[in-house]
Backbone:
């Protein structure tokens, strides 16, 4: 540990990030260091969100990131191949921590890939580098250890003239011990929990066509140890329970009435892509579901909408602009105050919260989905919240933009987000929202909290092989405490003969 502190101190004196990487075939090894500062005892939103859990400490901090990877052979159609990845991060500042960001092994047989371990993962139709965050799995938290079978890339069906292609996955994950509420017996207990996750996406349009259509769904379930939770009224075998989990079938026996096993959520996604001569345009929509309202279109207003414009004339990756994105996220309705008749028959869908799993759709205290659905950890303490809610702000309206490109050989990437935040239905003005929830406002009114968060990253490659750069981020508004962060970075890379 003493030696590690000496290395980090050297990085601080240089006041930049040092990165060394060596590539040999499809092997990559690297060492990366961070040195910087965040104000007000807070890490700004875009320095801690969608970073796969790789986050600096608040205040003055230093970090070392080490990685080693072997990917599949590039450009080769091998029947069998293998790969592996390891990435760890050590932070020192006002405290210290060591985190395994990624660690997995994988094998490929034809179109199928089998992967085991923790990996960086995003699920849903969206842009992966500039997005505000996919609804189901955005890369906001650490990856959940899992075993996954997947068709990773779109595979065209040859007997349909390559007009139709599909990809998907089926995974079993381990969340560890989670706290649960047994509402019938008015007690809480801690039990091990699993994650079931699957997806299936299709593409219509030949690879050379200008127009392509996309559609698909993803489905996630937190579940496990139902017999210990429900006790004598639970009569399903483990195999039967798993069938109920993956199908979403409801179970009834004794005091258990029409209940799905576990916490279910996901999105049904649609997209369209058109390639013009000089740029490509992609539109997508994620329709979100959690408690069944989407089947009746009761929360059809809620969802993530995105537009990507990508430059097709960037073969050297040094064009003035490479890609721009704009997204609109809306989650205020939650199956209430809707034109759907179902809205009058249903309470509301409290996104990411769950009555049985007390921390809802989270892993190690961080939300797994979009970071704009916020936990109490990073939100101002003077804002109203229901103590039974883990996510205390899930009714949001967000406009988000992002872009990347190069100006005079300086590469840039930026994100900027404007949001209006309304807490939950339990901290809303029930009369103003038309929710009719008796408990609304019992713990105060959250109000309408406006927030702006931004991020920029600059990087320049020098003739000597060194890269110099800068990362900055900041928050201004009434949802988070105002703060800024600044990190200098530099890198040196080489490829052995």
Residues:
């Amino acid at each position: 540990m003493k030696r590690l502190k000496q290395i980090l101190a050297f990085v601080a004196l240089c006041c930049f990030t040092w990165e060394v990487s060596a590539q040999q075939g499809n092997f990559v090894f690297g060492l990366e260091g961070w040195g910087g500062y965040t104000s007000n005892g807070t890490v700004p939103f875009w320095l801690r969100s969608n970073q796969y859990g790789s986050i600096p400490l608040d205040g003055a901090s230093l970090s070392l990131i080490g990685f080693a990877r072997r990917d599949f052979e590039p450009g080769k159609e091998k029947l069998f191949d293998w790969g592996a990845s390891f990435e760890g991060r050590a932070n020192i500042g006002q405290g210290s921590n060591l985190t395994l960001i990624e660690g997995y092994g994988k094998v490929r047989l034809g179109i199928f890939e089998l992967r085991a371990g923790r990996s960086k993962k995003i699920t849903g139709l969206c842009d992966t580098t500039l997005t505000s965050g996919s609804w189901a799995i955005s890369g906001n938290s650490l990856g959940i250890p899992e075993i996954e079978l997947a068709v990773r890339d779109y595979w065209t069906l040859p007997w349909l003239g390559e007009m139709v292609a599909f990809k998907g996955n089926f995974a079993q994950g381990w969340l560890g011990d989670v706290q649960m509420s047994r509402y019938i017996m008015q007690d809480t207990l801690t039990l091990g929990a699993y994650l079931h996750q699957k997806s299936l996406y299709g593409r219509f349009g030949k690879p050379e066509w200008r127009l392509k259509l996309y559609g698909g769904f993803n489905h996630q379930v937190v579940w496990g140890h139902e017999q210990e939770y429900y006790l004598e009224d639970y009569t399903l075998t483990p195999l039967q329970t798993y069938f109920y989990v993956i199908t979403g079938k409801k179970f009834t026996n004794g005091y258990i009435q029409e209940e799905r096993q576990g916490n279910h959520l996901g999105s049904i996604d649609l997209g369209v892509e058109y390639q013009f001569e000089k740029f490509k345009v992609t539109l997508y929509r994620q329709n979100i579901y959690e408690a069944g309202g989407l089947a009746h279109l009761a929360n059809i207003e809620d969802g993530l909408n995105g537009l990507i414009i990508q430059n097709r004339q960037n073969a050297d990756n040094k064009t003035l602009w490479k890609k721009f994105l704009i997204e609109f996220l809306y989650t205020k309705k939650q199956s209430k105050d809707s034109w759907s008749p179902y809205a009058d028959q249903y309470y509301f869908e409290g996104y990411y919260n769950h009555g049985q799993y007390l921390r809802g759709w989270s892993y190690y205290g961080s939300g797994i989905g979009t970071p704009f659905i916020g936990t109490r950890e990073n939100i101002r303490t003077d804002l109203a919240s229901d103590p039974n809610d883990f996510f205390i702000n899930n009714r949001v309206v967000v406009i988000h933009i992002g872009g990347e490109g190069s100006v005079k050989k300086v590469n840039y990437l930026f994100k900027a987000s404007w949001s209006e935040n309304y807490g939950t239905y339990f901290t809303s003005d029930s009369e103003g929202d038309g929710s009719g929830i008796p408990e609304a406002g019992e713990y105060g009114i959250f109000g309408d909290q406006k927030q702006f968060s931004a991020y920029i990253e600059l990087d320049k490659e020098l003739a000597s092989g060194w890269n110099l750069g800068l990362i900055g981020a900041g928050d201004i508004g009434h949802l988070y405490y105002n703060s800024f962060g600044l990190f200098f970075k530099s890198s040196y890379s080489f490829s052995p003969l």
